[in-house]
Amino acid sequence: MSFPWANHYQPTNPLMKWMDEKLPLPRFVYNAIGAGYPVPRNLNYWWNFGVLAGFCLMIQIVTGIILAMHYAPNALVAFDSTEHIMRDVNWGWMMRYAHANGASAFFVVVYTHIFRGFLFSSYKAPREMIWLLGVVIFLLMMATAFMGYVLPWGQMSFWGAKVITGLFGAIPLVGEPLQVWLLGGFAPDNAALNRFFSLHFLLPFVILGVVILHIWALHIPGSSNPTGVEVKQESDTVPFHPYYTAKDGFGLAAFLVIYTAFVFFMPNALGHPDNYIPANPLSTPAHIVPEWYFWPFYAILRAFTFDFFFVPAKLLGVLAMFAAILVWFFLPWLDTSPVRSARYRPLLRKFIWFGFVPCMAALFYLGGAPAEEPYVMFSQLAAAYYFAHFLIILPIVSMIEKTKPLPNSITDAVLAKNGEAAAE
Amino acid sequence: MVRLIGILVGIFFSGWLLVSLAVGFFTWASEPKVETAEHVFHEHPKALHLASDGPFGHFDLQQVQRGYKVYKEVCSACHSLRHVAFRDLEQLGYTEAQVKAEAATWMVPGIDPVTGEDTMRAALPTDYFPKPYPNDVAARAANNNAIPPDLSLMAKARHNGDAYVYSLLTGYQEQPAELLEEFPEAKTPDGLHYNPYFPNLNLAMAQPLMDGQVDFDDGSPNDLDSMSQDLAAFLVWTAEPTLAKRHATGWPVVLFLLIATVLAYLAYRNVWRNEKH
Description:
heterodimer, A: 424 residues, mainly alpha, Cytochrome Bc1 Complex, Chain C, two-stranded antiparallel sheet, globular, B: 277 residues, 9 helices, 4 strands, 45% helix
């Protein structure tokens, strides 16, 4: 769908006319991310992160395919083949650092993109499907990143795999057989490494497929915007190209400066030194921690230390960890406010900035801290707020909150911001 | 209905977390704190500054060469360097002929070309540094039941690895009297050696390097502190021989992207010059 005032694709070059008759791919691109897609004119820099996420996926796929040409998914040689890439393959070190830091960059970008969704209630009707697909992408990313971290077969690879697959062992009755079935053995070994490699290669293309659905679903209602007021007239929008291609180009270049600074100057800053020690099933690291992007959920997992009657604490932790992400699926229905943007929802805005943001910052820190007091007590407090925020505060605030008056249209909001009288 | 179930689930999770918090706090507040000797006496690595530090870092090849000599004459008796090949030494400024001659001073396992029996032969530049022990059992048997770890990646396999190596080599000392007073059960067992830079304070390796143990051809200082720094510099190189190239590549890339960012910003301002937003 598009707005009636959208530009129409009119090829003049005979070759392009011929192409348009046979396979209208240029027309498709023109309507998807070209001048034929009208976009609200008031998007701010929060809206840069979708394009950045797509770019990160491309970095990961390209560097990953090159790494797979040199990597050997066998427990005997996986660690050495990774070092072979670092030392002997031409520019192999750059590919591997680009891939490892690319995963971190992808999560930074996607967390920001998701937070944009919370801040501007992007999940609300008519964009529920975009949001649901986005949560699916995030879950697939977590699975892919987890399996990718196992591949170098260092100490954290091995013990991370053991701990995370061990979570399935907490499920009553079927837990242990399920864990053995998932790993292809009683502990991570060659069978697990091989299937993780296979799936780590497959899942990015599944992600790519869901990303296409995500963007398709986006093009039906069109992009949201910081006021949360829907597009009403032509003056509310500008064509995606050249306006947002230019703005995304700037955002992309700025992002790449930070990303390449990590790749070339501090490539190991976000990794764990133990993963440069080959996997050793007989030697447990002092602190087993996943990669930083899993820390909030790892903190929630470990916050449950007390059995609930017949339900063991470990199972509660596993349920809570999955629930922490699954709850996002229900946001479109938990939030009943007629207003989208937190700009016009003063109470929600306070809860987001002074409740949710410190809570997430604490969970990020605590997930990487050792599982001892007083860290565990703080993660219990932060995790309690996390669930309360989405499941109690958000539904209640959205019902009782007195929202601020919305602008009549995006154009009015833009003109008011620029200090001009709203034209009727 | 969704909201009602949601609120109930939220109350359950948040409530149970707060109950766990209360129980945890009670336990934490009521039980006496148990301190451990490792927690109190373990020290973070000393500050170490090498030429390879920072975004402009590159290898001080003379220092790395000295570190190689320390490895060869001291560490290699027990520690392998399995990711490094003799051909890699060319990166330290040695010529092809020098590398060939250096490799030939090492013996590696080989096969007799006539009988096919296991034998030892002089190493070639294509060989990797040989392992000092034929297997882990032999390594354990010779080292008080501890396997000397491979050193190739040591500088990346510990937090602040180069400073860790330097601190460990220079950190051997008598067990402090306060430690024995506070934690009598933490007395260093026979056969182990006290070192506050080692995570659990006692390690199987006796102090490996002493003042004046290695002589350098150019008369560089060979006190313990200098040689430990040299060895740390060498291990930074073995852990990542491409480090200098990485820094040298990074600057043009980042500067190019910075200019691209400025141009992209100007292009963005230009495109939007007539559109209020």
